[in-house]
Amino acid sequence: MEYKQFLQIHQYQLASIPENLWEPLFQKLGQDLFDAGEYLELHYGDPLDRYSLHVKKEGGLKKHGDIFLVDHAWTTKPETSRAQLLDNPQLVERLTSMMDISVDEEEEVEEEAADSGEVVSKFPDLEVDQSMVELVASQGNVTEERAKIALQNEKGDIIAALMSLTLHPDHDAEGLKNLENAIGGQVKRDKEAKAAEKKKQDIINKIMVEMWKYSQTYEYAVVDPSGQTKKESAWYIMDEVGSSMAHSDTPNCVCAPFIYVGRGTVSYSIIYPIEDIPKGGALTRDFVPVDIKDPITRKAYLQIYTEDEDAAAELIAAYESKKSEDNKVKPFDQPFVKTSARPQSKALDRKLRLYTTTEWVATNCKLPNVELVDSEDQADLLWFSQDFKDFDKLTKGQKINQLENESCVTFKHNLASLVKAAYGTVPWSSTTYNLTTELAPLVGNYLWNQEHERRNLWIVKPWNMARGLQITIQEELAPLVRQRDTGPKIAQEYIQTPVLYEGRKFDLRYIVLLNATHKVEGDPSQGYEFQLMVYKMFWIRLANQPFELQDFDNYEKHFTVMNYGNYNLTQLLYTDFIKNFEKEHEGKHKKWSEIQADINEAIKSIFAAAVVKPQPQGLGAQDKPQVYEPFSIYGIDVMLRDDAQPVVVEVNFSPDCTRACKYDPEFLNNILTVVDPRAGDVNKGLEAFNVL
């Protein structure tokens, strides 16, 4: 590659690098030249209690005087990192050394003599295999209970358990020796293998925690199977040189990723000094992302590196202040118009024309009074699966399945903000933080939980993604904070004690119709009258494995969306669910009709706030008259806490209702006739809804 071509291809990355370093960088990239070792060296325990990077060159480094390439030791994604570590012992060994990780050997527990002389288990909670119990009971000529205690006391070692049972003055030493020779070798090997596997898992668990203090990230574009370009994030850990740089609020170096398009596409990092650094001086960089400006948010971000007690106290105070403010908000009551039927629209001398880009709508539209058309201009009713922007082009009387600014409820951070503004803290909404704007109170909440011995579990989600994409569960502070670096996200308290169905976690998907008509028919200046209704039929999404508060990267244990991957999907009709639920939880919870009423009330509260709050926080009417009539259907996901308290998890835009149409063939027909009675019998359609 020629230098001019290099400049053209990499111009956006080079813009932030001093121009006098462009050509040296070009030369080093072309030669794959890692010459930092000629200028720099690693120190251990000087001045940090880990590795740090120092200048060894005589005369030191000059500001903008040189630039160094840094290789990447590991590039990964959170969802695949554990599997990569399991498959690559050399990488585990390298990262263990870089991160200065050690695993304590299991301490031996000294035997305690029972005052009564009765043999008791020192480890009563230790699980032992039943077949081992039966073997020891048979060979030792004791009861299974006695054999189990011996195995627990000897931590599963069969030979040691037998010796503890049979070693007495009349003991047959030769027989025991033969037994040991027969089964002891394999037992010993099994025990050693289990110990090695446990140590391996412990090391990987520590790497999975520590990696967030070392990892950096960059975005890249990919083309999905539909031809759409989307951005994805990669996490990487620099080699020993880059990973040894210390943090400073006044750094003397810049360290940043550089994606080189030369011999293919290769990712490096680059380091160059922005201050003079004398020989022996430590190289430092600012760990905090450049978009974080205010001091309290910087302290929150740096808490994962420094564990500063003064900063922790300040962050806890910030959390307590915010919590107090949220608790002061007084909820309001904003009832919707409750009409069992709407006035019949003027009949058409033709079929109602429907234009749609939504596959499940086109496939399931069977009403005789409705015909599909292939032009937006011809349509009386438009139904889009993608965001619609051209509201000004709609004509009088046209109906469309979107409202302007409905992202106030469908974007997760906006929904949380709306609920807080309207109601403060409510039981039907989990504590939620915007990682971009509310990092300080989130970290304060985390530290407060620690101080009060409450377990921290947080589920992190992108602002606007469905189908369970890029959702993780975090227990440690470092990965929780670092999630903000890969795009806008929220952190929400994980429901640790959900109601279970046959031992498994579940959530419920409701379809909600928000229908808007002009208060005075034909007069756009009068604004909208809103109707809110919940479809009576809902569907159940079940995890595939029994629920427990561990193995948080096990998707089938902690997540319920199974229809977009290679998972088993449980099909369960809502009527069967209600019957089974009431039987399983009889006497523990309310009747389902009462739980459903609570769910409806929570849904109503969200949209009551949305239709009252002005834009951009809500859906409130704009100043300009609107000649069209909007409606929208939303997918509302609800979970139940262990006291059957509903929690609205999220509100989804343009939900995929293929499953609803299979469960109820009249599903779409009912929606269309309620939205526009010219499509069919509106009263029949309304029977499928609870009108709120």
From TrEMBL:
Keywords, comma-separated and alphabetical: Ligase
Protein name per its UniProtKB record: Tubulin--tyrosine ligase-like protein 12
Organism: Entomortierella chlamydospora
Domain Tubulin--tyrosine ligase-like protein 12 SET-like: 54-108, 197-303
Record InterPro entries: SET_TTL12, TTL/TTLL_fam, TTLL12
Family annotation (Pfam families): SET_TTL, TTL
Coiled coil residues, start to end: none
A GO CC term assigned to this protein in UniProt: cytoplasm
UniProt KW Ligase keyword: yes
